[in-house]
Write a structure and sequence with these properties.
The chain is mainly beta. It contains one helix and 13 strands; from the N terminus they run H-E-E-E-E-E-E-E-E-E-E-E-E-E. Strands 3, 4, 6 and 7 form a four-stranded antiparallel sheet that branches. Strands 1-2-5 form a three-stranded antiparallel sheet, with no helix packed on it. Strand 3 and strand 4 form a beta hairpin.
Length: 249
Amino acid sequence: MALKLTWSARRQLLYYAVGLVICAVLLIVFYNLFLTTSPTCFDGKQNQNERGVDCGGVCSLVCTQDTHNLVVLWSRSFLVAPGYYTAAAYVHNDNVTAGARAVQYSFQLFDDKNSLVIERDGQMDVPPTQAITVVEPSINVGNRTVSRALFSFITTPVWHAAAIPMLRVSNQDLAQDGSRLSATVSNDTVSNLRKVVVTAVLYDSAGVAKAASKSTVDIAPKSSQSVQFTWPLGNPQIVRAEITVLSPF
């Protein structure tokens, strides 16, 4: 025989059920607020849609397995005045959707006996740009003569997803004797870009770099900035100039 509950018993049972539901909801809220934390890109766990621990997916840090090493294609030293050289290196970067900040590098200049003349260390932000020219100007070597240059990165880049502002180079004008190069760099974005590094390399007919220089400019939104490079000794064998803009990111 089925047990029939009185009206008061049914009402009391309903109250108990509602109370249990309320308690369960409160326990869930308490657990989520005080006993658990939302996944982040700094919690030391592979969660969310991360490809590794705190990297990839929604995290800005790029996982090591998804990055490429920077490749130094060449490094050179150029005499710019008695006792002064400019060192330059051309670097290929396949991380075209990621950038690395505060990467330290070193130029070592050697004489014809392969003895170290001087070492110049520097630091740069590596933008998500495939072609990168690193230039260190005005290196004082005293009365020494430099025959070759060696360039290397001395810290491992930490790559973060980044987009680079698109800048245009126009009105490029190279003097026939290779002593002067001018151009216009245009900022089509609505951002005020500061410390934009502009480098120039001069090449001869064989494609060998013969001179290099760099300039740092600030470019207001929707505006242009002229840049000029000079080489007092001139370079009459120059047939081509390449300007690279390393935008902040």
